[in-house]
Write the structure tokens for this entry.
Amino acid sequence: MSEHTVSDRIIEEYLGDLRDALRTINPSSSKEFIAEIEQHISEGRTSLEPGDEVGLRNLLERIGSPTALANELRETEPARTVSAMDRATPWLIMFGGFAFGFGWLVGLYGLWSSKTWRIWDKLLGTFIWPGGLLGIFYLFLAIPSSTACSGFQGAGQTAPTLTCVHHGIATLPHALQLLAGFVIVAAPIFTSFRLGSVLSRGYADASNPRGIRVVKSRQSRTSKRVTWIFYCLALLIFFIFVLTLH
Amino acid sequence: MRRGAIEYCVLALLQSEDRYGFEITRQLSDADGLVTSEGTVYPLLTRLRNDGMVDTYWQESTEGPPRRYYRITTNGQRALKSFIDQWARFRDSVDDILSRGK
């Protein structure tokens, strides 16, 4: 491994720790802060020899430990407040569709106009699934299997010859139907819970005026991976469903 | 108190010329006892910008990546001037009280 790669790895590790330490901070502030620190590191590196590991470690030490920086940022950050709209958004996304679809649209506006959620959560809230739980309701209405038959009655035949084509969910094995149904229904519920959990992360209230909250269990890399696999599976099943319609 | 004073030190550094983040943090961390870690200066710079005390612009650098320069605003100059007056009175009073204890 070359020296250059070692330096890069040290920096990646440091920035990774910093991102973890800043998880409870308002995402837009922490993003800007990380960009400043990255800029500071590149600036500091220009005066170092390539592969000067000691120099690099000194540079990072002067910047400060990720935990200390996170504490400092929490102190200078204005207390984060959550608007009533933010609180209502995860519920509107899940159930708003039942209010003639209008509630879901209001939820969508709340989601995209808020600084609380990051782009990935906004995309998840929008596309899994459009209309929230109502969207699923329509999906299941649309998808139940249909059988189209066409045939003709030849001369001398007492019954017509029928050719039938099956469409929809019934073409899948029974166990797969259940699993697919479960994943598709669980996905929007999971999305709303996710939006809600981002919301409850480090906001100010009467008992916690500065909005400082210690996150008891950080989302591990494995659970992150499981989350993404779940969503990919949900999307895959959704597309299979749509395809079986045609 | 220290954090409050550091913000004005930043404004004072910008009085004579515009400076970029790395330069400001280095100057502050080289001064004895002002900041414990350089990274902690950035949230202060952001706050000064949000409060309209400084504004920023990007400029190409010959030595590395483009730099974000900080420039003191008229509001910043006004705030600095009033701080300097207050600080002188505060320092004299503290010195006075401390010298009585000797």
